[in-house]
Predict the structure of Methionine ABC transporter permease.
Amino acid sequence: MDIKLSTFWPNIWEATIQTLQMVGFSLLFSLLIGIPLGIILVITRPGNIIGNQTFFFILNGVINFLRSIPFIILMVAIIPFTRIIIGTTIGTAAAVVPLVVYAAPYIARLVESSLLEVSPGVIEAAEAMGAKPHQIIFRVLVPEAFSSLILNITIATIGLIGASAMAGAVGGGGLGDLAIAYGYQRFETDIMIVTVLLLVVFVQLVQSFGNKLSKTSRRR
C-alpha cells in the first residue's frame, strides 16, 4: 500500500466527516425546499384543496425537468450557479449546492407520493367540518402521511449518500473523492474497500433508523 499507515486512518476520518457534512447540510436544505414543494404539488392538483391547473402544470414540469438530469451532469451544468452561491466549485461546501438542486425535486415528488396516499374521505370529512386549507394540510394530510413521509425521506437520504460519493469525481471531497484519488487513480485497493464498506454501513444505519422511526410513528 503506497499511502502511509500514519495517514491512512486520518484521511479516512477526514473524508468521512466531509461526507457526513455534505449529506447532512444538503438533506437539511433539500427538506426545507422539497417538503413545501411536495405539499404545493398536492394541494394545487386539479380537483384538490386549492386546485390550480396552470400552476400545477408549471411546477410539475419544472420538477420533472430537474429530476431528469443525471447528477454528474447537473454538477457540471450548474457550476456558474455554484460559484455565485459559494464562491468556488471545489470542496465540500460547493458540493452541497448541486446536491440540493438534485435532491429537492426528488424529495418533493416523494412527499407528493406520500400525501396522495391519504384517503380522500379523510380530507372530505375535514372540509365538511369547516377546516381551512392550512388546517387540512398540517392537521390531516401531514399527520396521516407521516409514517410514509419518514420512509420516503429515508430513501432520499440514501440517495444523497450515493450522490455525495459521485461528487468526489469533480473535487467534491468526501469518501467518493478519496476512493477516486487513491483507490482508483493510485490503485490503492485498501482505500477503495474501506470507503465502500463505510458507505454500506451508512446506508444500513440510515435505513434501519428510518424503518424504526416510521414504525413507531405509524398512526393506529
Summary: The domain at 8-217 is CATH 1.10.3720.10 (MetI-like fold). The chain has a mean pLDDT of 87. DSSP finds ten helices and no strands in the chain. The chain has one domain: 8-217.
